[in-house]
Amino acid sequence: xxxxxxxxxxxxxxxxxxxxxxxxxxxxxxxxxxxxxxxxxxxxxxxxxxxxxxxxxxxxxxxxxxxxxxxxxxxxxxxxxxxxxxxxxxxxxxxxxxxxxxxxxxxxxxxxxxxxxxxxxxxxxxxxxxxxxxxxxxxxxxxxxxxxxxxxxxxxxxxxxxxxxxxxxxxxxxxxxxxxxxxxxxxxxxxxxxxxxxxxxxxxxxxxxxxxxxxxxxxxxxxxxxxxxxxxxxxxxxxxxxxxxxxxxxxxxxxxxxxxxxxxxxxxxxxxxxxxxxxxxxxxxxxxxxxxxxxxxxxxxxxxxxxxxxxxxxxxxxxxxxxxxxxxxxxxxxxxxxxxxxxxxxxxxxxxxxxxxxxxxxxxxxxxxxxxxxxxxxxxxxxxxxxxx
Length: 389
Prior knowledge:
Largest sheet: 5 strands, mixed
Order of helices and strands: HHEEEHHEHHEHH
Radius of gyration: 70 Å
Distance between the termini: 222 Å
Number of strands: 5
């Protein structure tokens, strides 16, 4: 028994250890169970979370599918609208291209027509230019001929005479002028103009000395210029003196004379650089006239001639007006007489009409066998009516 007691006593720690091991095993099993339970719960939670996530993912995928379908529809609609717009744009672009092509064609046609017209005008202008060039060539030849004329004193005098005669002929009627007329002192001026109402004639001289002016223009130094100035004064002064001595005849010529300068530039040079010559000519009653001034003077003379002719015709017009007034008076008297005759004839016609009406009434009375006494007959013109009754 003691031995058994010792064995139990020896086995006590072992049993304690075994119990402790059992407790530990139970605790371990309990921990494992708790762990397994917690793992199951966690796994269930994870599965629930996974399912929730899967559901959310499914919902999102469904939403995404729906959005994708909507996007596909929108893309389809957009593509259809884009294709329609593209077709409309293509149509509009084709129409615009056609319109632009037509406009470009019309513009090219108009440009071609304008180009042809411009080329035709250019051809015409070239023809005009060719004609002008030919005219310039002829003018150059004429200028050379004019140079030759001006180099010759007699030819130059004929040139001035020709210009003066052309101006006079264009402005005055035939009979109002005379070229190379012979005066009483046997001199022959270049032109003598007759003014109306005056027997004296206006003398125009066309032999202006141009040699000295040519020398003045060709002078290169001061000495040559001084000599040319002195020559101009001498030649022009002598010519003015000759005109004053030859062409001023009392009762036959006017008290002034014209010295015709055939060049406007020379006329301007005379008045600009030789004022003493101009004053000397004025004192001698000789006036320098250029072609334009001579034309103005001729126009003034033409107006004077026209006024004189009108005054001459005024007497004839007055005589004709007096005769016309006599004819008008005679016509008025005859018209008055005719009016009297018409008035008398009208009165006679009225009397005849009255008698005819009364005769008509008596005839109607006879037709009705009505012999009632007639009314009192009117005197004079109505007297024959009762006799008929």
